[in-house]
Amino acid sequence: MGALKRTHELTFRSLEARLRENAPAGERTCTSSHLAGLVSGKSRPTPEVIRQICRAFDDVEPESFIEWRLWQIQRLFDPERAGLEAAVAEMHAFEKTRGADASTEAEPAPRWTRRHSRAAA
Fold it and tell me: Which residue, 62, 43, 78, is CA-closest to 4?
């Protein structure tokens, strides 16, 4: 999002205004302070925030955000969203592509932290 802000030469307040102008009536949008937190890495955007940004910029697709792509992948493994059978099938397919290394890690990977890269690919 920092690159988007620089490309369009926007301040956080002008970006906040642009989101508000493009939001459906009654929808709450991000404040300038929340946007600053997203750019600095203190917080990460939710899918709804990404949708708001994409509505405000015609040339931006949700898939340009790494957080969106991770969210889409996480949904595949969520038994409450995909159903247990579908989530297990995705897990087995994932394990096959990773080979023996897929389930041998001692503990899960760490949750999102500021150390992780936030750059969109």
Answer: 62
Place of tokens 């890495």: 41
67, 45 contact by CB (below 8 A): yes
pLDDT of 19 above 90:
yes
| Per-residue pLDDT tens over the stretch 77-99 | 999 998 999 999 999 999 998 87
> What pTM does this model have?
0.68
Cα–Cα distance list, 105 to 79, 83, 101, 102, 121 (Å): 21, 25, 7, 7, 26
Nearest CA to 35 out of 27, 24, 44, 48 is that of 44
Q: d(Cα 22, Cα 80) in Å, to the nearest integer?
A: 32
